[in-house]
Design goal:
Length: 303
C-alpha cells in the first residue's frame, strides 16, 4: 500500500510539473507573439509616417513648379479644343479619349521633374532620412495618380463647356466604373514609364526626348486622340500599336461606351475578345514597371 501511494504521489508530481512546463511554454509563446506583433505594428506605423512625410514633400515641390500645372491642365485643354472641333463630325466617340490627355501627359512632366530632383539636393535629402526607395516611389506614384485623376475631372468640365450636348449625351451613357478603371491604368502606366526612364537616364535632354517620343506615338497609336478603327484598319499600325502600353488601358476605358469598345472587338478585326484581356495586360504592365523601377531607380545622377 505504501509503495502504491508513493507511485500515485510521484505521478501527481510529474503531472503538475508537466502542466507547469506547458504553462511556461504558452506564456513564452504569447510573449514572443506579442513582441513580434509589436515589432510589425511599429514598422508599419513608421512606414506610414515615412509615406505621409514624403507625399507632403512631393506635393509642395509640385505646387512650386508651374510647369507641372500648365502641362497637366492647360496643354490638355488646348489639345481638347483643337481636336474636338477638327474631328467632331468624323469621330464623335473620341470625346472620352480626350479626357485621357492629363494622365498621358504625366509621363512628360514627371520624367523631367525627376531629373531636376536628381540633379538637385531634393532626392539626396530624402535619401539621408532613411526613407526606402519603395516608400518614396509609392508616395510619388500615389501623388501623381491623384494629380492625373484631378486633370481628368478638369477635362470633364472642359468637355461640358466645349462639347455641351455631345458631352452630356456621352456622360449620361457612359459606364463610369470602366472609365475610372481605365483612367487609373493609363495614369499608372504614365507614372511607371516616367520613373523608369528617369531612373535609367541621367541626362534631361535624353529623358525629354524619350518621353516625348512615347507621348506622341501613344497619342495616335493607342486610340486616344484618333479612334482605334482608323489605326486598326492598317495592319502595320495595328501591330505597332500592340507595343504601346496605353492601348490596353484605353481599351478598358473604351468599354465605358459600347460603340467605342467595338473598335477593339468589332466585326472587321478583333484585338480583344473579352474585357478581362486588356485588364490583365494593363495590370501586368504596371506591376512590371514598378518592380523594375524599384531596382533601377537612383537617388542621384552621380550614383
Amino acid at each position: 500500500m505504501l509503495q502504491s501511494k508513493t507511485l500515485t504521489q510521484n505521478k501527481e508530481q510529474i503531472t503538475k510539473e508537466n502542466k507547469a512546463m506547458k504553462n511556461t511554454k504558452k506564456e513564452a509563446d504569447s510573449k514572443n507573439t506579442n513582441k513580434n506583433y509589436g515589432y510589425v505594428k511599429n514598422r508599419f506605423e513608421q512606414k506610414c509616417r515615412d509615406f505621409n512625410s514624403t507625399f507632403v514633400l512631393i506635393a509642395k515641390s509640385w505646387i512650386k513648379d508651374p510647369s507641372g500645372i500648365i502641362s497637366l491642365f492647360v496643354i490638355p485643354t488646348f489639345y481638347f479644343v483643337i481636336f474636338y472641333f477638327l474631328l467632331r463630325n468624323k469621330y464623335s466617340q473620341s470625346l472620352i479619349g480626350y479626357l485621357m490627355l492629363p494622365p498621358l501627359t504625366v509621363i512628360t512632366t514627371l520624367g523631367t521633374g525627376l531629373i531636376n530632383w536628381k540633379n538637385s539636393v531634393f532626392l539626396k535629402r530624402i535619401d539621408t532620412t532613411g526613407i526606402s526607395k519603395t516608400t518614396f516611389l509609392l508616395s510619388l506614384w500615389t501623388f501623381n495618380l491623384l494629380v492625373g485623376l484631378l486633370g481628368v475631372c478638369v477635362q470633364i468640365i472642359v468637355g461640358l463647356i466645349i462639347a455641351q450636348g455631345d458631352a452630356v449625351d456621352q456622360y449620361n451613357s457612359m459606364n463610369w466604373g470602366w472609365f475610372i478603371l481605365g483612367t487609373i491604368f493609363i495614369s499608372l502606366m504614365s507614372i511607371g514609364l516616367a520613373t523608369l526612364i528617369a531612373g535609367i537616364f541621367s541626362s534631361q535632354s535624353m529623358v525629354q526626348g524619350v518621353t516625348m517620343i512615347i507621348y506622341f506615338l501613344s497619342l495616335f497609336l493607342s486610340g486616344i486622340m484618333i479612334p482605334y478603327t482608323t489605326i486598326g484598319s492598317v495592319k502595320a499600325l495595328r501591330i505597332i500599336s500592340y507595343f504601346t502600353p496605353y492601348m490596353y488601358g484605353n481599351a478598358v476605358t473604351s468599354k465605358s461606351i459600347e460603340s467605342a469598345w467595338q473598335m477593339f472587338d468589332g466585326p472587321t478585326y478583333q484585338v480583344f475578345t473579352e474585357i478581362w484581356q486588356p485588364c490583365v495586360a494593363s495590370a501586368g504592365i504596371i506591376v512590371a514597371l514598378f518592380a523594375i523601377t524599384t531596382m533601377t531607380f537612383k537617388w542621384s545622377s552621380n550614383d
